[in-house]
Amino acid sequence: MSKTSLIQDYKTACSNCHLRELCLPVGLSPDDLQKLNNIVKTRQPVLKGEKLFTEGDEFNSLFAIHTGFFKTSITATDDGREQVTGFQMTGEIIGLDGIVNDLHTCNAIALEDADVCVLPFENIELLSREFPALQRHMHKIMSREIVRENEVIMLLGTMQAEERLAAFLLNLFQRSHMRGFSKSEIVLRMSRQDIGSYLGITLETVSRTFSKFCDEGIIEIKQRYVRIIKPEALKEIFNPNKSCQ
Amino acid sequence: MSKTSLIQDYKTACSNCHLRELCLPVGLSPDDLQKLNNIVKTRQPVLKGEKLFTEGDEFNSLFAIHTGFFKTSITATDDGREQVTGFQMTGEIIGLDGIVNDLHTCNAIALEDADVCVLPFENIELLSREFPALQRHMHKIMSREIVRENEVIMLLGTMQAEERLAAFLLNLFQRSHMRGFSKSEIVLRMSRQDIGSYLGITLETVSRTFSKFCDEGIIEIKQRYVRIIKPEALKEIFNPNKSCQ
DNA sequence: ATACTGTATTGATCTATATCAGACATTTGT
DNA sequence: ACAAATGTCTGATATAGATCAATACAGTAT
Predict the structure, then answer these.
(1) Strand partners, A235
(2) Is B236 on the interface with A (CB under 8 A)?
(3) Which residue ranges form the domains of chain B, and what is each CATH number?
(4) Is it the case that residue A8 has pLDDT exceeding 80?
C-alpha cells in the first residue's frame, strides 16, 4: 500500500513559529516579520520516502523545513550511482541549487514524515529588495551552503573513514543539540547506505567503524540509536593529535 | 628575491570590459551597466604565488578575475593538509565563502600573475536592491557555485581516479574554450599536486593516469602542455558505457 | 507464533590507490 | 653556463577500504 501525501495547504505564520531563530526570519524586525508571513504561502506535507523535488524539476520555490528530516542527492547520468550531498533538519532551507538554471539539480527526499514551508522565490527576491535584513540573510544562507559544501569536499578529499564518521556524528549531534535535543543521544533517520554515500565509503565500512567506536567505548550504538559516551575522543579522531606537531 | 604586488588602483569600466558576457554584468541593460561601473572601485594586481585572501581574513569584497588563474583551498585545522576546492579563471567571481560570517574561510592563490576587480559587497547589495537584474544575477552566481560544489562532491564520493581526471580535463577545456581558447590545447597552470588535491588522489596517481591516457592515444601530454586527441574517449571514461545498461 | 522483507553486522578476500624511493626534467638564481 | 631547488615520472611494495558472502536482527504482514 503506497501512501500519498495529501495536498493540504494551510496558512502559516513565521512570526510565531518556534523555528524563527533558526530559519528565514533570523534578524528581521517584528515589522519585517509581518511582511515575511505574506511570502510564505503554504505549508506542504511530505511523507517519509517521498520526494519534495527531483533533478530536472522546474524551480519556483525554496523550502524551509518545518518538521522532519531530509536528504539531498544527485545521481550519475549514466548508471544510477547515487551521491548523498547532505542531510537537512528543521529550520534549514533547501532548493538553492535550482536558482541558477530554474531547474532543480538534486533530489530532496523526506527521511521521516515532514512539513515544509513553501517560499516562492519571486516573492523572496521582491521582499529582499525592500528589506536589507532579509537580503543580507538570504546571502548568508547561500554562503553558508557554499562553506558547508567546502567542508564536505575537505572531508571527502583528505579524510580517513574514521575521521569522516567522527566528523559526521559531531556535526549531526551539534545541529540536533541546537534544536533543543539531547547532546548525547540520537536516533538516526538515515540508513547505513545513506551515511556511506554521503561520506564516500561503503555501508560495510560505516557499520564496521561504528562497531569499532563502540568497542573503544566512544559511543554506544544499537541499530539507529546512538549515544555518545566520549565526545572528546570523537573530536580527537576528527582533529588528530595537533599537540604532536 | 620575493616579489610583492604594487598597490596600484586604477579605474575600470565593466561597460567596455571584454568579459562582460561572462562576469557580473551578464544581463544588465546599458543603463544598469553604467551604475555597475561605480561599484567596481578598483583593479588590483596579484602576482603568481600570492594570496588574494586567506582563511580568517576579514570579508569586505568579492573579486572578479579580470586576468589570470586562481586556486582556492582550505587547510585542516590540525596538521597542514591542504584541500584544493576549485580553480577559477577569468570572469569568475571569488570570495562568496566570506559572506556568511564576514570572514573568509578559504585561501585564494594566484597561479599566474593576475588582476582582479574589487567589488565591495555593501555596494553590490545596495545596487542589487535597485536593479532586479543584478539581484537575480548575484543569486545565480551563488547558486551556480553550490551546484558546482555538488558536482565536486559527486566526483570525490563516487568516481575512480580515471573518471575524476577525465572530468577535470573536460571541465577545464570547456571553460577555457568558452573564453576563446583552443578546444584541444591547454597549458596547465596548476601542479600535479594541486590537481591531485582537488581530485582527492595523490600526485603520483595523477601522473600515472595522465601517462595512461597518453599511451592510449587519448591525450598528448608533455609536463604542463596538454592536447586532447580523442575528446569522445574522455567523455566515455567520464560517463562509462551508458549503452550497456 | 511464523514467514517475509529490508537493514545491519561480521568475516574472508581482493584491489585501487597510497606510500616510498629513485631517476629525470625544468625552472630559478648566481 | 652551472648548481640548486622544484616539479614530474615510473617502479616496487603496502594498505585502507571495497567487494563478496553469510548471518543476524527488526518491523510488518499472514
Answers:
(1) none
(2) no
(3) 14-156 (2.60.120.10), 159-244 (1.10.10.10)
(4) no
